[in-house]
Amino acid sequence: MSTLRVGVVGVGAIGRTHIDRINNKLSGARVVACADVNAEFCKKIADQFGLKAYETGEEMIASDEVDAVVVTTSDAFHARYVLAAIKAGKYVFCEKPMAPTPAECKEIVDAEIAGGKQLVQVGFMRRYDPGYKQLKEAIQSEKYGYPLLLHCAHRNATITEPWDNSSAVANSMVHEIDVLRWLLGEDYATAEVVYGKKTRRAKEGLNDPQIMILTTKSGVRIDVESFVCNGQCYDIRCEVVCEDGILNLPKPATIEVLANTVRGNAVDYDWTTRFVEAYNVEFQAWINACKEGKVDGPTAWDGYACQVAAAAAGKARETGTVQPIVYDEKPEFYK
Ligand code: ISE
User: Fold this and answer.
1) Model confidence over 130-162: pLDDT tens digits?
2) Distance CA 51, CA 46 (A)
3) Ligand 1, from 175, 176, 233, 282: best to mutate by most atoms within 8 Å of Cβ?
4) Which one of 136, 152, 250, 286 has the fewest CB atoms closer than 10 angstroms to its CB?
5) What's the average pLDDT block by block, 10 residues per block, for the chain (335 residues)?
């Protein structure tokens, strides 16, 4: 196959950045088609990028003109289109979360197993961030002993999506749930969520900041601060306290600015700039893997495992308790 012909379902902001990325920055693939529940908007975007607009996502996915699919609809519709891609036997990249509930994720896992071939990659781009990769290499080198504690922060300047008290885990800290499981190479055992003192910037009824506390099966204790209305910047931290050393996620290299009698480094305002390199590497890897006929990134099983932990953390928050995280047994298919 010379050029991978991609169809994108869901042409909102993230869908459009991926269309631009694939068509203008990466190699080996071209987005040729799109679909969206908003037909008029879909047509507009199709004209803007020179794509064929389909009436429905299912029609586009089944079309002979599309080799692989990117799902960037709102979260509630992810499973529907991932299942359609599995049915069509096509590789599919699905933005995180793979689906909002563990049950829907399990349906995807079961459909993929029934089809007999791995086709699904989940959009956990942090695994492709150079800083997280360095942390993983340092842990794997065993030079610093085994990790004991992790202190992490996921701070957003402002909320840009529909948001309630469940969203800090469901929309934001799912990134940590995935990337820390990948970093440590083990599953979780328990989850708890507590609230900090509420910021004046949070709307009525919203508890911000929140802290999620996870333990892994071997006993590593992790705290993640989510502060979605911090009003300042996008700030991602990960400190790994090991037996013989303390490892920190590198700060992104940004220009030094001298202004208003302060000397300092520029900071990101949101994830689109902070993780732009990770997104590019992630999509190039996905394109290459599709062309080689394999999945080489976060799998449907990883998508399921993430939502099992997220659901436990959600229940922990609602009930003010520590919740066990219990996964189904990992199928041979994903080992
Ligand atoms: C958003 O959907 C993302 O995926 C960002 O990476 C995260 O920082 C943000 O909190 C989410 O709302």
Assistant:
1) 999 999 999 999 999 999 999 999 999 999 889
2) 5
3) 175
4) 250
5) 94 97 98 98 98 98 98 97 98 98 98 98 98 98 98 96 95 98 98 97 96 98 98 97 98 95 95 96 98 98 98 98 98 97
| Residues in the ligand 1 pocket, defined by CB under 6 Å | 156, 161, 171-172, 175, 271
pLDDT at 160: 87
Exposure of 225 in the CB half-sphere (CA atoms within 13 A): 18
Q: What is the DSSP letter of 261?
A: T
Whose tokens are 């979260």? That residue is 75
Q: What is the pTM of this model?
A: 0.97
User: d(Cα 61, Cα 68) in Å, to the nearest integer?
Assistant: 8
Structure tokens at 112: 């993929």
Closest-CA residue, ligand 1 atom 7, reads 172
Kindly list the distances between the CA atom of residue 332 and the CA atoms of 34, 99, 109, 301, in Å, as whole numbers in the listed order: 35, 22, 12, 11
| Closest approach atom of ligand 1 to CA 154 | 8
CA–CA dist 258, 247 (Å, integer): 29
